[in-house]
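Task card 7
Instruction: Convert sequence to structure tokens.
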Amino acid sequence: MTALGFLAGLWTASRRGMLAGFLPEKILDIGPWLILGTILGARTMYVTTYWDEEFAGKPISEIFMVQHGGLVFYGGLIGAALACILYAWFKKMPLWKLADVLAPSIALGSAFGRVGCLLNGCCYGRACSLPWAITFPADNPLNPPTTPVHPTEIYDSALNLILYLTLAWLFRRRKFDGQIFALFLMCYAITRSTVESFRGDYTVVHYHFGLTPAQVVGIGTFATGLVLWWWCSRRPQVKPAAAAQPVPKHP
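Output:
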């Protein structure tokens, strides 16, 4: 599902990029950078967050076993952001315009990723008796509860899909470069923090002032989006380029 999320995200971003003057291949070329940055960032944050429970005293090679599960979205977002900054710098591309092109597709990729969480049995919710509660099989190796719980993975996936559609619609109506990415940061922080209130896979040691790790990071993410919106809206704006067109071949 993570792979499908990357493919769907890159393809939709390449189509959207033409509206901002980027040739599709320019957006597709950033794919390997984003994949590497996302996985490194997501795995690093997971390992540091769950070191005592899952990695202390185990072979160091376990850190690299991403196939066993263990990727944190916010870590992946930070890693992907750094990769995007480096790519834009090397290729001399306008950073905030590129960020706006990618932002809706980040939400789409996360929607796929959360389906993977559901299939994997991680990121599950608290016990509940609602009609849509789900129950994991008893032989799941991650040992999720075998009693009905909130399908938080589905909540998160649905909200990310709505966020993708909203941001894709707003992209055509943006007023300044950086607007869509800033809006993504603020909206994702809100939706993710809301879903976190239904999560049941955290232990007491993970809470800080009654907040989950993602809610704590979400406060910083929302603040970053707010500051970015303010700063980008005051920057001199370059007139949007026309949609990229194929260069005609002369005989």
